[in-house]
Amino acid sequence: MLSAAARREQDILALWDQAAGRARHQRDDALLNAAGAVPTDTIGAGNAALLALRTKLFGASWRLRAACPACHGDCEFTADSAALADGLAPQADAVPPRIAIGGQELTLRLPVLSDLANLAAAPDSLAAAQSLLARCLGDMPSTALDQDTRDRIEAELERCDPGAVIAFALDCPDCSHSWQAVIDIAPALWAEIQAAAERSLLEVDALAREYGWSEAEVLALPQARRAAYLQLAGVS
Q1: Measuring CA to CA, how many Å separate 234 from each of 111, 118, 129?
Q2: Does residue 195 have a pLDDT over 70?
Q3: Taking a C-beta distance cutoff of 8 angstroms, is the pair 131, 142 a contact?
Q4: Helix (H, G, I), strand (E, B) or coil at 106
Q5: CA 66, CA 31: separation in Å to the nearest integer?
Q6: Which neighbouring-strand residues pair with 80?
Q7: pLDDT by residue (tens digit) across 130-184?
Q8: Distance separating alpha carbons of residues 87 and 90, to the nearest angstrom
Q9: How many CA atoms lie within 13 A of 207 on its CB side?
Q10: What is the DSSP string of 39-69?
């Protein structure tokens, strides 16, 4: 019977198989599917599902890095992905966002995951943002809105789905600059999956060359024993 660590490693490798070498939106879709998210979920709910998947695969302690916008130095920090996921869980009684425009109240639609998939073909980030805004407005053309109204709409959408944007308040250890570091959950999770999968494959390759074992035999080894064999083979 496989240990919990061995099952997690196999899950990581299976995800890597599904997503490696694919376009960004296809890779994100693979992660969201593995997380149990559905196209009608809000962006915040999708992020919560990804964070729960990350906790399942790697544990709650999450080491992150952001570049200081002032001095461009690396700032490392740790977050709790389990606590973040719990905090982003959608509220069942949440009301649709509304905003007054031109003397009438307009009910907005929160962006959902299927909206993001449809934005993959946008030529740039500005066009993608405009297209996403248009989807949230329904019958009202976004081109008829001034910038102030657009800003108010975006602020209301963010208020009603705060999990759509994950940001951390950081202070740079080098220059003391303070800022909000936005973390894009899907690529951050993918970076961890890719690093872990590549590490497993290197270990399989080393032990297969040294002892002639199959991939399945190497992956079935307990972590401590595998580390011992890697040390004996001179590759740890």
Answers
A1: 52, 49, 52
A2: yes
A3: no
A4: strand
A5: 22
A6: 61
A7: 888 888 887 666 666 788 888 888 888 888 898 999 999 999 999 999 999 999 9
A8: 9
A9: 24
A10: TTSBHHHHHHHHHHHHHHHH-SEEEEEEE-T
60 within 8 A of 49, measured Cβ to Cβ: no
Regarding beta strands 98-101 and 104-107, do their DSSP bridges make them parallel or antiparallel, or are they unpaired? antiparallel
78 CB neighbour count, 10 Å cutoff: 9
- Checking if the pLDDT of 92 tops 60, the result is no
What is the tens place of the pLDDT at every residue in 48-69? 999 999 999 999 999 999 999 9
> What percent of the residues of the chain are helix, what percent strand, and what percent coil, each to the nearest 5?
55, 15, 30
Indicate the SS3 state at residue 184: coil
Structure-token match 């405009």, residue found: 130
Whole-number Å distance between alpha carbons of 109 and 101: 15
